Amino acid sequence: LDNLLLTAAGGEPDFIKVIDFGIARILSEDHLVTRAGEIPVTPLYIAPELVSGLTADARADIYSLGVAMYLLTTGLPPFKGATPSLTMLAHVNAPLVPPRARGASRMSAELEDVILRCLARRPDERFATMAEVALALQDTPDVRAWKAESAARARRISGGGSDTSPA
Question: Does 130 have pLDDT greater than 70?
Fold first, then answer.
């Protein structure tokens, strides 16, 4: 969760900022760097196409969002290997256990479907844009039930205040 910041922004009481998705490329099996060559990124969030050395587009960020949603709803990453290399390979090869089978039993089937579509291995099976993800999320019972008081409770649990705090 080090890549996520929980904040209030634009009148929204619970706004998550993602701080390094979509900027990584692979230099060697164990070496990920940003385009600027400065900050290593975490293999927990990397899209399969980046692991495979293929060209990535905005759908790689949608995949990373799916990882974050999976992690936030289950408390577990969708893929975790014994090493960074094995974690990256798991994004390509390991079977994905649906969130509701990993402890998110109160999650609606609709929200699980959104998360699983974000985590599709093939980019053309994911949402094409973040706007499509947002629309799909708005249609889930989970998002409709989320209230400002729930956001405040989440910030208290995470140790954050009303400004920016790590999620």
Answer: yes
Residue in 53, 60, 50, 52 with CA at minimum distance from that of residue 127: 60
Task: Look up the pTM and report it.
Answer: 0.73
For residue 84, the tally of other CB atoms under 10 A from its CB is: 17
Q: Is residue 32 within 8 Å of 25, Cβ to Cβ? A: yes
Question: In this model, does residue 31 exceed pLDDT 50?
Answer: no
- For residue 106, the 8-state DSSP code is T
- Calpha distance 67→44 (Å, rounded): 8
**pLDDT given at position 3:** 62
Nearest to 65 by CA among 136, 154, 4: 4
Task: Tell me phi and psi for residue 96, to 5 degrees.
Answer: -95, 120
- The two structure tokens encoding residue 122: 């093939």
Q: What is the model's pLDDT at position 22? A: 46
